[in-house]
Write a structure and sequence with these properties.
The protein is an all-alpha fold and 150 residues long. The chain contains five helices and no strands. Helix 3 packs antiparallel against helix 4 (92-120). It is elongated. It holds the Pfam family Hemerythrin.
Length: 150
C-alpha cells in the first residue's frame, strides 16, 4: 500500500459510513418508520459526522485539486445535500432525495475526485493532509434509536 492510498483509506472509510446512513434511510422508509425518527437520526449524523467531513474536504482536500469542474460539482453537491438535510419537512420525498443524492455523490467522490487526488498528491500535500485529518470518528454505537434493526 502506498503512502497516498494509506492516507486516503480513512477518507474512504468515512465515505462508507455515509453509504451506511443511506442504507439506514432506505430501510427506515421501506419499513414505514416514522419520518421524524429518521430525520432525527439524519440531523444527528449531519452534526456529528457529515459537517466535519465536508469541512475537511472543502478546506483541505478540494483546494489540492484546483478550481476545476469536478470540484465545482462537489461543492454544489455539498450545498444540495446540506439543503436537503436542513429542510424543515420530514416527508418521504425529501428523505428519498437525500438518500439518493448522498449515495450518488459519495460514489462520484470515490471514483473521480479521490482517484484524481491520489494521482496528484505530492509529499507536502500528504504531510498537510495527515496533519489536518484526524479520522473523523463515527460513533454510531452512541445512537440509541436503531430503527433500521428489526
Amino acid at each position: 500500500m502506498t503512502a497516498k492510498s494509506t492516507l486516503l483509506e480513512p477518507l474512504s472509510i468515512e465515505h462508507r459510513q455515509v453509504l451506511h446512513l443511506c442504507e439506514n434511510i432506505r430501510i427506515g422508509l421501506r419499513n414505514n418508520i416514522q419520518k421524524e425518527r429518521i430525520r432525527t437520526y439524519t440531523n444527528w449524523f449531519k452534526s456529528e459526522f457529515l459537517d466535519p467531513h465536508f469541512a475537511l474536504e472543502e478546506q483541505h482536500i478540494f483546494p489540492l485539486l484546483g478550481n476545476n469542474v469536478r470540484v465545482k460539482k462537489a461543492l454544489a453537491n455539498h450545498r444540495r445535500i446540506n439543503k436537503l438535510m436542513t429542510c424543515d419537512c420530514d416527508d418521504e420525498k425529501v428523505l428519498n432525495l437525500l438518500e439518493e443524492e448522498l449515495a450518488t455523490y459519495i460514489r462520484f467522490e470515490e471514483r473521480v475526485l479521490y482517484k484524481e487526488l491520489a494521482q496528484n498528491l505530492n509529499p507536502q500535500d500528504l504531510e498537510m493532509l495527515e496533519k489536518h485529518h484526524d479520522n473523523i470518528v463515527f460513533p454510531e454505537e452512541d445512537w440509541k434509536d436503531k430503527f433500521w434493526i428489526s
